[in-house]
Specification:
Elements: H1 7-14, E1 16-22, E2 25-31, E3 41-52, E4 58-67, H2 69-73, E5 78-85, E6 101-102, E7 108-110, H3 115-119, E8 125-130, H4 146-159, E9 165-166, E10 174-175, E11 180-189, H5 191-200, E12 207-213, H6 220-223, E13 224-225, E14 228-229, H7 235-242, H8 245-250, H9 252-260, H10 270-274, E15 287-293, H11 302-310, E16 317-322, H12 334-350, E17 362-367, E18 370-374, E19 382-390, E20 396-400, E21 412-416, H13 422-425, E22 437-440, E23 448-452, E24 455-462, E25 468-482, E26 491-499, E27 510-516, E28 518-532, E29 551-556, E30 560-564, E31 569-575, E32 590-594, E33 599-604
EC number: 3.4.14.11
Keywords: Aminopeptidase, Hydrolase, Protease, Serine protease, Signal
Protein name: Xaa-Pro dipeptidyl-peptidase
């Protein structure tokens, strides 16, 4: 889309540096800082969500706003960058856990993160929304449910004149968003980006783009893995962590519903289905910028993979995949991130034809700080079916594309659930272990890229009435990786600061710098997946296993993008309770896997 307006109108609207094409026609290159950050309007509006609390009161959510004063004075309407979060007065945001602060009159002073410092001078408004039941909003925390999605959607509606805002939490004086152009971009990491996904899935008008960083697409897949209970706590426990005092007092029924809807059986209940945005991805009209760590073991990477694949083909999109864990790109690729985000918002919120929509859709970090662009994601691969073959060493064998010969006689490989860890299982790959099975390919003759979502089918028996299964893909060979298991999940925070935008009293634009934290390994885990064998037939209801009876189960591994270098081997590890990430069934079952009926489906480039 090319924008051509009068030079004065464009300059006032976006603060762009312009080269006149004629005395009356110009085309902006980018928004530039022409507005005063120190003099910006700072205010709070409480937006009616249309919902009621358990006590019957209307739910209003607080939206803290900072916007250029000069734009309103000259009648220029500005676009909005919005981050809706439950964390502004609890956990905080960003690498420095920044929280909102207010003056004695309740006027917002500190807006966490750099968005306000950088974008307000460039002609944007920043709106930070307290989700229902958190900070200065009323209502309840329902952990990704209808109330939270409505919290943010209502603010988009208010910015477009379709909802009612007030100057206080309970008063009747209305507040107008007459200063808003109606173009809204939602951004956020983790829970914040999750709500952006949920709002986009409503198809709300005015939401032009979302930037979802380490975001959930299905809350079931945050707390469960094909029926296995992930070690992420409980939804009601998470609600208690972020809710305000009024919600803690008044929202017991909501938390009770969360508890009853998340049984330890791993069943996919109506509560989980309400919090699954993937089936509604067809409603998305906003452009999408997805950022995720392939080693994110908080919000597992299956969340970005299934969301990306479900988006309509008409959705313009871009993806960054990093080798880090649950880390914001501001902290692993700062300068490039700020520039890219700037151009993204300029294009989708201000209509500036800067060409970003024509740039490569995919940028992937395969080695620390080494990034590769591609036209799309996942890259074109040849789906391969790989099979495990036994050897003379118990529990150790080969992995190849050669299918086992047709036979009605099972080939059993046996191990015992010792509630170990995948990081132990991948060590000593040529030795027998009673706790796992491992099958390795020959050394690869060329680099081979895994891009997409692997899937495995396992036929197994259990000695007891319940059992877990874990499947792990490993790159065997010397590698230097981001140390995603460290406290910074692939980054180290430094003592120095760099500044991104303008500062004012109480809100600095200068943030702690970071550096890449690296480690060396001879066994780099590139994808993993977990399942409860009792969910072999369906996620709807876990079945009690009949001991020593074979059951066939198919489940996804983590969406990923990794390069296995020439000379390395690809290994498949099969274990039971991976104690680092899933809970046990309460016993130590003995398991047997039928290798003739077990197959790994993996999207790979090159030959194997």
């Amino acid at each position: 889309m090319t924008i051509r307006r009068s030079l004065l109108t464009v300059a006032a609207a976006v603060g762009a540096v312009l080269v006149p094409l004629s005395p009356a026609v110009a085309e902006p290159l980018e928004s530039t800082p022409v507005y005063s950050y120190a003099d910006a309007v700072r205010e709070t509006v409480w937006v009616d969500t249309g919902l009621t609390s358990p006590q019957g009161a209307r739910v209003r959510v607080a939206a803290d706003i900072i916007r250029p004063r000069e734009a309103q004075a000259t009648g220029v309407k500005v676009p909005v960058i919005m981050d809706a979060s439950p964390y502004y007065t609890s956990v905080g945001r960003g690498n420095e856990s920044q929280k909102k602060t207010y003056d004695s009159a309740g006027r917002p002073i500190q807006f966490p993160l750099f968005y306000d410092n950088y974008f307000v001078p460039r002609g944007y408004a920043i709106v930070l929304v307290d989700l229902s039941g958190t900070a200065r909003s009323n209502g309840c925390v329902d952990v990704g449910g209808r109330s939270e999605v409505a919290s943010a959607k209502a603010v988009v509606d208010w910015l477009n004149g379709r909802a009612t805002g007030y100057t206080s939490a309970t008063g009747s004086t209305r507040a107008s968003a007459s200063w808003s152009s109606g173009a809204v971009g939602m951004i956020g990491k983790s829970w914040d980006g999750t709500i952006a996904n949920g709002v986009a899935a409503t198809g709300v008008d005015g939401l032009k783009t979302i930037v979802a960083i380490g975001a959930i697409s299905s809350w079931y897949d945050y707390y469960r893995a094909h029926g296995a209970t992930l070690t992420m706590g409980t939804p009601s426990g998470l609600a208690s962590r972020v809710e305000n005092s009024a919600a803690a007092t008044n929202c017991a029924t909501v938390k009770s519903t969360l508890d009853s809807g998340s049984p330890s059986s791993g069943d996919l209940t109506a509560m989980w289905r309400e919090r699954d945005y993937v089936p509604d991805a067809a409603n998305v009209k906003a452009s999408m910028f997805v950022v995720h760590g392939v080693n994110d073991l908080n919000v597992k990477s299956i969340n970005f993979g299934q969301w990306w694949n479900a988006l309509p083909a008409t959705v313009e999109r871009k993806i960054w995949l990093t080798q880090a864990g649950h880390v914001d790109p501001f902290d692993f690729r700062r300068a490039v991130w700020v520039d890219t985000l700037h151009r993204w918002f300029d294009h989708y919120l201000m209509g500036i034809d800067n060409g970003i929509q024509n740039e490569p859709r995919s940028t992937v970090e395969h080695q620390p700080d080494a990034w590769k662009d591609d036209v799309g994601w996942p890259v074109v691969t040849t789906p391969k079916h790989l099979y495990a073959h036994a050897s003379s060493t118990a529990g150790v064998g080969t992995l190849s594309s050669a299918a086992p010969p047709p036979t009605e006689i099972p080939v059993w490989a046996r191990f015992t659930d010792n509630r170990g860890s995948e990081y132990t299982w991948v060590s000593n790959p040529t030795s027998t272990s009673s706790a796992r099975l491992i099958y390795s390919s020959p050394a690869l003759t060329a680099d081979n890229r895994v891009s997409g979502t692997p899937r495995i089918t396992i036929t197994a028996t259990s000695s007891s009435s319940a059992a877990r299964l874990t499947a792990v893909l490993v790159d065997l060979g010397p590698s230097t990786i981001r140390y995603y298991r460290g406290s910074g999940e692939g980054i180290t925070t430094l003592a120095t600061r760099s500044c991104w935008g303008e500062s004012a009293t109480g809100d600095s634009a200068c943030f702690l710098d970071t550096a890449t934290n690296k480690a060396t390994t001879s066994a780099n885990i590139i994808s993993r997946g977990w399942a409860d064998l009792g969910h072999h037939a369906s996620l709807d209801s876990r079945k009690t296993l009949s001991p020593n009876t074979p059951y066939k189960i198919t489940f996804n591994l983590a969406s990923t993008d990794q390069v296995i270098p020439a000379g390395h081997k690809l290994a498949l590890v099969i274990g039971s309770t991976d104690s680092a990430y899933i809970g046990s069934v309460g016993s130590y079952p003995k398991l047997a896997v039928d290798l003739t009926k077990t197959v790994l489906q993996i999207p790979m480039t090159g030959s194997f």
